[in-house]
Specification:
Helix 3 crosses helix 5. Helix content is 24%, strand content 26%. By secondary structure, the protein is α/β, with parallel strands linked by helices. It starts with 7 loop residues before the first strand and ends with a helix.
Amino acid sequence: MSKLASDTAMVMAAGMGKRMRPLTATQPKPLVRVAGKPLIDHTLDRLADAGITNAVVNVHYLADALEAHVRERATPKVTISDERDALLETGGGMIKAQGSLPDPFFCLNSDNIWLEGPRDAFHDLSKRWNADQMDALLLLVPHARAANFRGKGDFHMDAMGRVSRRRSGRIAPFIYTGIQLVSHRLLRDAPEGKFSTNVLWNRAIEEGRLFGTAFTGQWFEVGTPEAIKPTEEALQRG
């Protein structure tokens, strides 16, 4: 198996979880249980299984409960990036945590659930990584492998793996899984405060430095309460 490109991942866990209401009225979304365990434990378990030893977890909404939960873990070792004072979104969150993140680092959402393909997602990204060419490498999944997903897709990908945005009025063949491998070069000259990673991705697309790789496993969109039951049934099938 190929060597991992990084031993560290940032886990995005600070959001308000509005689409998951009412389940998030009294708990942060990462602690919503699916198939018997909190969403964030599905994510952290995948990191541990892949051999990733460190996780930086950002917190904001109901931060005390989430921080207490993740600090109980031995593997991966968790460092908290505290956004209690101001929610910084995905881009701002990475900038705040940058000092705790090696170059490159994995970054993923805390509500991801997936079944691996022939290789785990992090080794797939590592095998494809080329620091000279890439500012970020996105793990993308085709519609057929994206359970519960009802959107029009996010990206097109050319034969070299360079990605471009979905064109207006079109269906894009690939959906972003919420998992990526990121170079610190992507984070250069970033805006201050709260902003989306899309700002940085757009620049990387213009420079031909945003790439994707197709995921060979099964990925589950778990954004609403209605998605929980079909996800649990699919996981039970294996």
